[in-house]
Amino acid sequence: MIGLIGGLCLMMLFITPIQATQYDPPWAHNYDFLYDDDLDSRPTASYASNIQSIVGYDNYSATNSDAEIAYLRMKDDSVFFFNGHGMAFDDNNYGGGLLFYNGTDSLLLAEYTQWLPPDDAYFLSNLTTELNDALLAVYVACHSAHTSWEAGNLVSMSADKGVDNVIGFTSGIYAGHSDYWANRFWTRCINGSPLGYHQKINDAAQGAKTDVLIQYQSYGGVDSLYGLYRNYYGIPLDYLDPDRYGVI
Amino acid sequence: MLICIIIGSGIIVEGTKDSNNINAAFDSVITFKGIEDVTIKLTGYEKTPYGNFLVLSNNAEEFWVNEDNLEVERYSSYFNYSNSNIIKLTNEEAYEIAQKFVQKDISTNGNKQYQLIINKLNDGGDVCEYEYQWRDYTNNIEGPSLIDICINPSDGNIMSYVGINRDIIIPIDYSIASQNAESLAIQQFDSIEVQKISSYLKIGYDEEGYQKLFWVITVHCKPENYQMQGGIVHIDAKSGEILRIYRWK
Fold first, then answer.
1. CATH code, domain carrying B204
2. ipTM exceeding 0.90?
3. Is there a domain that residue B171 lies in?
4. pLDDT tens sequence across B90-143
5. Interatomic CA distance for residues B46 and B23, integer angstroms
6. Domain finish residue from B118, B138, B164
7. A-chain residues within 8 Å CB-CB of B59?
8. Number of domains into which chain B is organized
9. Do A214 and B126 touch (CB under 8 A)?
10. pTM passes above 0.80
């Protein structure tokens, strides 16, 4: 009998889905970078963090972080924001991941394929249910919503893993235009600035895109905005506020 | 006539130039919409290189009215984004709607030569759009005017519109040749292997709102360490000064 109970417990251990920890207030992590090629996306992470703070998230921002820390924290995040380099391969294929940098490079990739990645790479495809309760992931990086045979598609993989709202870009984007997009996006999420109303996540993303056209007199690639949003019969549902985790 | 106007607190002073501007801005929105039943409020101001704007909005639409000419130069309708990923219209059908909407802009802009430079379906995942963009050209130099419109591919509604009409007020002569500008642009990047480069002349606005003639040079270099290399460089077409560098992400 004891053996039977022990066996059942062991079986339960194996079949219970891996659940992320939900903190109160929910976590939001934001990353920007100064790379060795002089690409500088600062201080967009602290800007996003301040906005998230206003609506109650337990917010963190970091400049020049490595992928492992972000990957581990992401499992418990409600909101994840990255602003930096996407993936570009020698064969001129693009997409499928994010390039972290803290003096050395490390990668956060969508999926493991036949391509042999460097040692310091982490894969969303290895996760099971940890991202099920994430509300929002924003990947401001070249080709972050584009599929490469080397590493898959970051946006669709995130959505498949359960992130309620995922935003990326299918083409190359320029630093100035996309930094501005990011700041306007976060502002619009809570103020709709200058709209005067908080905006749904998808509306904030679209509004920020047109903000770029007016401010920079061109899109600079941000018209390749690509978003997958939790919706009801085609009507997107979610706002950034109030602070919360996503729907499991 | 039914007009519901809510003025933001502390903004309007009876009988001042500001109040006259704000009232005129509301009138512009009514004219733009073509209906008199408009519920909007003044929600803010925006300072941009194209000028300063009064922003009037409700929870589904925003109208940016230029403070100087009192034209609605930007419109977004968030309600019209619904179900846009269900593609029902052909490009030709959407283009006809777009062209009809902007016909006034194109036909009333004097002697400007507009060219359609963007004509595409943006597959944005859950939000898709047919996008059309016109720019004006003088002697192959891109001018400051801009018309950009996005159409919902499902129902043909206007999702967003930008209509900026500006005359060129600076001389369009220049002394930096395209080859020299491209050479300068390449020097801004460490990468030694340039795969593709293109350039064109543009009259745009600097951060203070002054027109400037400059080269726009796009540089594609071979990726290094998984990083896309290169970017876009703006170079003053008279002095050769590097005005701006935006790297690829």
1. 3.10.450.40
2. yes
3. no
4. 999 999 999 999 988 877 666 788 999 999 999 999 999 999 999 999 999 999
5. 17
6. B164
7. 195, 197
8. 2
9. no
10. yes
